[in-house]
């Protein structure tokens, strides 16, 4: 009986190796084939196109012969072969070690018996992002070798693309640090601010008071919080601004009996779905409209298609709230159903849950919590460009000029009120940290120690953001973005609206992995796609394409490793990417289905869409 079970396990093992090698071999070859054929087709060089096609077919045939040969050897189940199963797994496709690595990590042969690993290896976000950087650099080189020098248009100028070398790949995270300097400064100041607040034990005392008052109704926090985050996402593109909330909300969720995934979902899906259903997001709708208008599209404004965007936003938020609340309900009822159940103890220790009862919510701590809440409220209000949002309103400009003229020692008027960037928000949190530090003052050494400790907690997040930003910069500087956009936009002619919008949605999803920034995406894609859609015979509208872009980019940024705020949120909640994907794939599937349904229905009402 044991021998029969071992034989079955051995067959399953070899089947996994065979199929995984088939998949990875053909996936990589298909990618190379697409890049070579596609890039040569752009030049109109039929000879190069045919040569690339023949070379790709040759590689496919050779790899197929290799796989069949080693499969026959494995079927014979020679015991000597089984002893070297790990080597054979690599030998299947010697030039694709990925296949062997994945299969040999899942299973191993020891004393001719198959033993399942106790714990699967999950690479960190740093490793994943750096590996993606290497892959993108390889793809850029493939395109360069087949197409030649890449040139693209930016700001009305023709620019030659930069092909990254090995040293450029190593330097890309450092360039990412420079490009993301404002965001990293914001995170370090946020860390210092939160540490000073945490040192006062005000949050712990506040959590204790909230849990007592909710008295078993903590689950109602989720819809309210998700609605608030979604409003921030749809109005001013709340994204990086959510990062401090992970450290605030996670202890509350754990103390209420939920898991860290609940906290992550509440913030990520709340703000993320708000961005995906952007109504008047100045970092998404406005850049797309501006880019399309400058490219020659007429009659397009930020309010074009707003009716359907409102409907889209409302339905997405309802779906997101339902899914996250259901997840929280299941975990609350039975914690063992949580993906991160085995890490509960570690999470409670890290976020210091269980010690909140000893801290009293006295007058000083209440004052700190009021300052704490007012700081975040002021941040939200100051990020919004009120004068741009309300036509004809110039009150803030008048007040800013009055301060500059009458009280120059308080305010120079350089930055203004409303439309704040990350630097102004950093100033806000730094000022609040100073005020709270004065209230809780013990000594200079204690104050500085809290600042340095808090900033240190965000160093890892800063590295993640820098690597992701460096990857995005490499794509932009190489000109690969423009090649993809130009090639894909030519597919929009002579197709019906429903098929066309689905193609656009898929295109935007693919490009969103490469360009996670909404404003960067809009300024790169819509100068080409806008006129292509406006002049096509498919019946599509540019405003509908903007809504589709909002949905596609917003969806990808909910889970893409190239999206800095996403991986940073996972890091802050102590949730690995592997655990996130295990816990979120059903919710992501429902969200994707909802988005596809909305854009298909939208094409039937072009006046709204």
From TrEMBL:
Protein's UniProt keywords contain Transmembrane: yes
Keyword Transmembrane: yes
UniProt keywords, alphabetically: Cell membrane, Membrane, Transmembrane, Transmembrane helix
InterPro entries in alphabetical order: C4_dicarb_anaerob_car-like (IPR018385), DASS-Related_Transporters (IPR051679)
One Pfam family of this chain: DcuC
Origin: domain of life: Bacteria
Record localization: Cell membrane
Membrane topology of this protein: Multi-pass membrane protein
GO CC field: plasma membrane
Chain ranges passing through the membrane: 21-41, 53-75, 87-107, 127-146, 180-198, 219-237, 243-261, 268-286, 306-329, 367-384, 417-441, 453-475, 495-516, 528-552, 584-605
Name used for this protein in its record: Transporter
Species in which this protein is naturally found: uncultured Mycoplasmataceae bacterium
């Amino acid at each position: 009986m044991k021998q029969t079970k071992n034989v079955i396990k051995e067959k399953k093992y070899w089947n996994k190796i065979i199929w995984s090698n088939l998949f990875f071999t053909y996936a990589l070859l298909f990618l190379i084939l697409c890049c070579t054929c596609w890039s040569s087709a752009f030049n109109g060089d039929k000879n190069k196109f045919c040569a690339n096609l023949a070379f790709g077919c040759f590689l496919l045939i050779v790899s197929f012969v290799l796989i069949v040969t080693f499969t026959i050897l494995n079927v014979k189940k020679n015991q000597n072969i089984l002893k070297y199963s790990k080597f054979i797994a690599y030998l299947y496709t010697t030039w694709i070690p990925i296949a062997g690595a994945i299969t040999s990590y899942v299973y191993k042969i020891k004393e001719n018996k198959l033993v399942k690993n106790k714990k699967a290896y999950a690479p960190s976000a740093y490793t994943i992002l750096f590996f993606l950087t290497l892959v993108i650099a390889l793809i850029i080189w493939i395109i360069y070798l087949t197409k030649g020098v890449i040139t693209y248009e930016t700001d009305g100028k023709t620019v030659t693309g930069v092909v990254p070398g090995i040293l450029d790949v190593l330097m890309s995270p450092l360039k990412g640090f420079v490009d993301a300097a404002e965001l990293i400064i914001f995170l370090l100041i946020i860390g210092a601010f939160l540490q000073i607040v945490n040192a006062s034990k005000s949050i712990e005392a506040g959590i204790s008071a909230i849990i007592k008052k909710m008295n078993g109704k903590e689950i109602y926090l989720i819809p309210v919080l998700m609605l608030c985050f979604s409003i921030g996402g749809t109005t001013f593109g709340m994204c990086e601004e959510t990062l401090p909330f992970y450290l605030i909300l996670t202890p509350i969720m754990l103390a209420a009996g939920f898991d860290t995934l609940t906290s992550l979902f509440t913030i990520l899906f709340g703000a993320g779905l708000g961005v995906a259903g952007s109504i008047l997001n100045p970092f998404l709708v406005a850049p797309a409209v501006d880019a399309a208008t400058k490219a020659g599209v007429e009659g397009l404004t930020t309010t074009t298609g707003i009716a359907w965007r409102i409907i889209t936003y409302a339905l997405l938020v309802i779906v997101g709230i339902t899914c996250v609340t259901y997840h929280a309900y299941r975990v609350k009822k039975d914690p063992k159903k949580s993906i991160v159940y085995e890490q509960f103890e570690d999470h409670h220790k890290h976020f210091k849950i269980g010690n909140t009862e000893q801290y009293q919510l006295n007058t000083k701590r209440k004052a700190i919590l009021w300052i704490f809440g007012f700081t975040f409220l002021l941040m939200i209000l100051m990020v919004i460009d009120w004068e741009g949002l309300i036509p004809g309103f110039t009150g803030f400009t008048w007040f800013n000029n009055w301060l500059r003229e009458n009280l120059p020692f308080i305010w120079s008027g350089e930055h203004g009120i409303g439309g704040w960037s990350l630097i102004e928000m950093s100033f806000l949190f730094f000022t609040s940290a100073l005020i709270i530090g004065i209230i809780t003052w013990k000594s200079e050494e204690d104050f500085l120690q809290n600042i340095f400790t808090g900033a240190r907690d965000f160093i890892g997040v800063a590295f993640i953001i820098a690597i992701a930003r460096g990857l995005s910069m490499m794509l932009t500087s190489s000109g690969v973005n423009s090649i993809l956009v130009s090639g894909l936009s030519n597919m929009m002619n002579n197709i019906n609206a429903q098929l066309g919008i689905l193609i656009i949605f898929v295109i935007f999803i693919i490009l969103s992995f490469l360009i996670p920034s909404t404003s960067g995406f809009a300024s790169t894609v819509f100068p080409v796609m806008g006129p292509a859609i406006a002049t096509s015979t498919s019946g599509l509208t540019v405003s509908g394409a903007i809504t589709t872009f909002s949905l596609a980019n917003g969806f990808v940024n909910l889970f893409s490793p190239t999206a800095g705020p996403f991986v940073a949120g996972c890091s802050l909640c102590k949730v690995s990417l592997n655990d996130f994907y295990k816990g979120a794939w059903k919710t992501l599937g429902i969200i994707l289905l909802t988005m596809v349904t909305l854009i298909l229905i939208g094409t039937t009402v072009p006046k709204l869409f």
